[in-house]
From TrEMBL:
Oligomer and partners: This enzyme consists of two polypeptide chains, which are synthesized in precursor form from a single polypeptide.
Encoding gene per record: ggt
Source organism (scientific name): Winogradskyella echinorum
Recorded metabolic or biological pathway in which this protein acts: Sulfur metabolism; glutathione metabolism
Signal peptide region: 1-19
Record protein name field: Glutathione hydrolase proenzyme
GO-annotated molecular function: leukotriene C4 gamma-glutamyl transferase activity
SUPFAM superfamilies: N-terminal nucleophile aminohydrolases (Ntn hydrolases)
PANTHER family associated with the record: GLUTATHIONE HYDROLASE, GLUTATHIONE HYDROLASE PROENZYME
InterPro entries named among the record's database cross-references: GGT_bact, GGT_lsub, GGT_peptidase, GGT_ssub_C, Ntn_hydrolases_N
Length: 568
């Protein structure tokens, strides 16, 4: 009898695992990422994922793990992990309630619309990207404290303890990190006027101990978020910044608040997709692109096929053209979100699309809306053992931000001011064009492309996903969701798959080099598309978590970085 039961059980298991694989496409090699039963953290560094998972094991939830993971990234991944930057959180609680937190940087009170222009009205090179004038008021500490205070379970000292230990005891440089640090070596020296912690010809395997950061985190752990915005840390930060010529004051820091926002939510087939609302363009653009492509049979065309690429690229162009004109900080500009994301408007936008030839970028521009309605980054995904899920993207903007390093406090400062449109029509670092909606004003938040996203299927949690990559963030998140939903790849395959990108201007398809078939590229060129394989060695570093049919979690940690999934 027992043997019979065992046999039945084995049969059931094999049927259910067959079922799981049946859903994968021919493109799939059936390779899955890490599988965990209860909970998972996927981030840009193994140390950060481990610390996040450790906090979950101690009984913390996703919001406690968020604080730990974000700060551990600030220690071990200073390229983008930060105290001196900002970010966005999308959450879905176990009971299905969802929300968004905006902890984006703000322009200083003394900021002006033309602050990056010379007397002739030309953009002053590097002023918005390098050094003290590029820095926006950091939002990260306010963000992680706001999220943890509202939803967390543990006390802050318990959460920050392993992070402080990481800063104090050190972490090891990876191969990829060695290359990044070497690339920025001379810039660190030039911007800071002296050697900094990361200027020591660091090699893979070398240990970094950041005592100054350990002390900063210790004070924050003891005194809370106000330590950063009003306490000794605030004073040291402002003193440092002003000595470097910054316009940031203590009042700027004291006035900073993270803001709860209504996220963007929309349907695509049987999926409900929830992503970041303005001041990020991520959710609106993702909604626009997915609604524009929904009527096309992408699955039938095939993964990264000529027709699938054409449809996606043409929808991307139209969305990025709207982004540049309509989007900005919702506290400063009226954004016609309802119209911009309506099916009627979006299907009309695609009316002039043809498989025969590209729609030229200069014939696209932003869509017409009659009358306004009254209406270098890192991503981590966490699912906790209670069924809560979060998607968080955080950034200093460029790699190591403004390159300005506050030695006494142990962290880099952002260059997020460059995400504003310094001058209408003038591209920023990511080649993005902006207009009045994203012009600079005191206390305004600069427009972002960050797209932390949670996907539900049949009302249940399905996926948490996001990525760095500046303007390519939106299209990388888009492709990852479609890779799973339309092209039936595993989470790990979906994040590793080659990516392409179009952002309206420049009028070209950016493709990851050596990743796409030469014949496919020739076919696209023959149709009239310009292909650029030089611009981006990689497009995005996507991290995600997928809920499988059997209720286990699959982590997707992008092979392009040192990203690691840790679960239990
Ligand atoms: O908010 C934004 O859209 C940019 N500051 C993101 C920068 C970024 O992703 C850099 N990573 N490669």
């Amino acid at each position: 009898m027992n043997r019979l039961l065992l046999l039945c059980f084995a049969l059931l298991i094999s049927i259910s695992s067959c079922k799981k694989d049946e859903k994968l496409s021919k493109t799939s090699t059936n390779k899955r990422g890490l599988i965990a039963k209860k909970a998972m953290v996927v981030s840009a560094r193994e140390e950060a994922s481990k610390i996040g998972a450790e906090i979950l094991k101690q009984g913390g939830n996703a919001f406690d793990a968020m604080m730990a993971t974000e700060m551990a990234l600030a220690v071990a991944y200073p390229y983008a992990g930060n105290l001196g930057g900002g970010g966005f959180l999308i959450y879905r609680m176990a009971d299905g309630t969802k929300g968004a937190l905006d902890y984006r940087e703000k322009a200083p009170l003394a900021a002006t619309k033309d602050m990056y222009l010379d007397d002739d009205g030309n953009v002053i090179k590097d002023l918005s990207t390098v050094g003290s004038m590029a820095v926006g008021i950091p939002g990260t500490i306010a963000g992680i404290f706001e999220a943890q205070k509202r939803f967390g379970k543990l006390d802050v000292t318990t959460i920050l303890k392993p992070v402080i230990a990481l800063a104090k005891n050190g972490y090891y440089i990876t191969d990829k990190q060695e290359k990044r640090i070497a690339h920025y070596d001379s810039m660190f020296r030039a911007v800071n006027g002296k050697e900094i912690l990361y200027n020591n010809n660091l090699k893979s395997g070398d240990q970094i101990i950041n005592t100054a950061l350990a002390e900063t985190l210790q004070r924050i752990s003891k005194n809370g978020r106000d330590e950063f915005y009003k306490g000794e840390t605030a004073k040291k930060l402002v003193e440092f910044l002003q000595a470097k010529g910054s316009i940031i004051t203590l009042e700027d820091l004291a006035k900073y608040e993270a803001k709860w926002r209504d996220p963007i939510s929309f349907q695509y087939d049987d999926l409900t997709i929830t992503s970041m609302s303005p001041p990020s363009s991520g959710g609106v653009c993702l909604n626009q692109i997915m609604t524009m492509v929904e009527p096309f049979d992408l699955k039938d065309y095939g993964h990264n096929s000529l027709k699938a690429i054409q449809v996606l690229v043409e929808a991307e162009k139209r969305a990025y053209a709207d982004r540049s004109y309509y989007l900005g900080d919702p506290d400063f500009v009226d954004i016609p979100i309802k119209t911009l994301t309506s099916e009627v408007y979006l299907h009309k936008r695609m009316e002039n699309f043809s498989f025969k030839s590209p729609t030229p970028a200069d014939s696209i521009s932003h869509g017409d809306i009659v009358g306004y309605e009254s209406d270098e980054t890192t991503h981590y995904s966490i699912v906790d053992q209670f069924g809560n899920a979060i998607a968080v993207t955080t950034t200093l903007n460029g790699g190591y931000g403004s390159k300005l390093y506050v030695e006494e406090l142990g962290f880099f400062l952002n260059n997020e001011m460059d995400d504003f449109s310094s001058k209408p029509g003038e591209p920023n670092y990511y080649g993005l064009i902006g207009a009045e909606a994203n012009s600079i004003a005191p206390e305004k938040r600069m427009l972002s492309s960050m797209t932390p996203t949670i996907v539900e299927k049949d009302g249940e949690f399905y996926m948490s996903v996001g990525t760095p990559g500046g303007s390519t963030i939106i299209t990388s998140v888009l492709q990852t969701i479609l890779n799973i939903h339309e092209f039936e790849l595993t989470m790990q395959e979906a994040v590793n798959a080659p990516r392409f990108h179009n952002q309206w201007l420049p009028d070209e398809i950016r493709m990851e080099p050596h990743s796409f078939d030469k014949k496919l590229i020739k076919e696209l060129e023959a149709l009239g598309y310009t292909i650029n394989e030089e611009r981006s060695p990689i497009i995005g570093i996507v991290d995600g978590i997928l809920m499988l049919d059997d209720g286990t979690l699959e982590g997707g940690a992008d092979k392009r970085g040192d990203d690691t999934a840790v679960g239990f």
